[in-house]
Structure formats: C-alpha cells, structure tokens
Fold this protein.
Amino acid sequence: MEVILTIALAFVVFLLVAVIVATKAARPRQGVRLTLDQKTGQYVLDQSDQGERR
C-alpha cells in the first residue's frame, strides 16, 4: 500500500513540475515578439527594440 502511495505522489510531483516548466517555456520573453511574416505565413521572432519603445 505504501509503495502505491509513494509512486502516486511521485507522479503528481512530476506532473506539477512538468506543467510549471511548460508554462515558463511557453511564456514569451520580454522584448521578443512573434510577428507574422506575410510572405511565408509563418511566425518569426522580432527581437528589435521597437516593442519596448512603444
């Protein structure tokens, strides 16, 4: 019984850490913006200072 509880607790902690890491990775960094390239239709990283000056 204790083994099952330990495995379940470890799994829940692992899921919690995975969710935190995923949300931090998905959050855009300051000063870096995704802009849509009209020619290719893909998103590209815009690292210019224009976003911070506005």
Notes: The helical segments are 2-26, 50-53.
